[in-house]
Amino acid sequence: MNWDDTTDATPDAERLVGPPGERLVGSAADRDDQAVEAALRPKDLGEFIGQEKVREQLDLVLRAARARGATADHVLLSGAPGLGKTTLSMIIAAEMGAPIRITSGPAIQHAGDLAAILSSLQEGEVLFLDEIHRMSRPAEEMLYMAMEDYRVDVIVGKGPGATAIPLELPPFTLVGATTRAGLLPPPLRDRFGFTAHMEFYEPAELERVIHRSANLLDVEIDPHGAAEIAGRSRGTPRIANRLLRRVRDYAQVKADGHINRDIAGAALAVYEVDGRGLDRLDRAVLEALLKLFGGGPVGLSTLAVAVGEERETVEEVAEPFLVREGLLARTPRGRVATPAAWAHLGLTPPQQTRGTSGQQDLFGA
Predict the structure, then answer these.
(1) Cystine design at 27: which of 81, 180, 219, 252 (Cβ 3.0–4.6 Å)?
(2) By mean pLDDT, which of 170-184, 191-205, 310-324 is the weakest?
(3) Domain 3-40+201-270 adopts which CATH fold?
(4) Residues that bind Mg(2+), according to the entry (predicted)?
């Protein structure tokens, strides 16, 4: 890491915030995240923080496979982005002493794409297939036979003269990762020997992640500073590491480089990340729902127009966290703000809201 990159940074808030539209608390990984994650990624299960049950179960699977001298069973990891699915796939390969091949579902649009990858695998190699639910159907059907029988049929020719040539594969371990396990067809799910769901992290676990990352990045941070960042990280290690890097920048530019609660709070205020981890988009959705529509119910399309965003952006980017935090509810009549949303923005629900259909259960009317 080149610390000299920030020595000439201006203290102006505009230089600290970054490009317009960049979402600091987004769980998708950008190029900067990928580079830093590679440096911070734990190398074995002992270093991996959180996901206690998954780690314990996976450790048994891998130790048993090593004792038998066999390849590990196929593994399916599901959960929200940024929780460590890619990291666990690399740990599986490291624990088994095997190389790893990384690809993704969207990159495999034809059965031939998958056949080319499978035919080049070495014995015992780990194939990590991210977003496995987005793989094309023909490739998916080829994967069934490859996982179960270590064989694929390659079709040569077209029409009545087409011939299926069986191609034997060496034993390998497929690690599939998905953010939407419900989209996987049952025949594919059933072929995984071990499945695990990754849960969101507790603040205490994120504090451990932040302290570990700070140590690797040579950043001074006290427990109160780590707690402040952890509380705004939306239960996601990737977001915690991203916030840590931005707070580090602020501490270098505006302080002595040491991160405490005050510095962390001031830095995240610049980046518009509040105490519960809500950013500008999240608050815009809540403010429109409360101030323009009296708490709802209101349709998704109307709400999206009110905040100047696409319907899909509101539904897929902002809503999941707001629902998980208990700030917004989806009802048959539309989106409805909860009492916690009014309290978070320091607003008082209008009297008429307490009697409207769709909010009676929320407000106890």
Answers:
(1) 81
(2) 310-324
(3) Helicase, Ruva Protein; domain 3 (1.10.8)
(4) 86
Please state, in angstroms and rounded to a whole number, the distance separating the CA atoms of residues 327 and 342. 8
CATH 2.60.120.620 correct for 280-363: no
Going from N- to C-terminal start, the domains of the chain cover 3-40+201-270, 52-197, 280-363
- 330 among the known binding-site residues? yes
Query: Please, are residues 175 and 152 in contact by the beta-carbon 8 Å criterion?
Result: no
* SS3 state at 156: strand
User: Is 361 flagged in the annotation as binding?
Assistant: no
pTM, 2 dp: 0.78
Residue (of 138, 136, 236, 135) closest to 176 by Cα position: 135
Phi/psi zone of residue 150: left (φ > 0), alpha (ψ -120 to 50 degrees), beta?
A: left
Q: Are residues 189 and 205 in contact, defined by beta-carbon separation less than 8 angstroms?
A: no
Residue 140, annotated ligand binder?
no
Euclidean distance between CA atoms 226 and 258, whole angstroms: 11
Class of domain 52-197: alpha beta
Tell me how far apart the alpha carbons of residues 205 and 196 are, in angstroms, rounded to a whole number. 19
How many Å is the Cα radius of gyration of the chain? Answer: 24
- Is a pLDDT exceeding 70 seen at residue 34? no
Q: Which residues are catalytic?
A: 85-86, 130, 179, 238
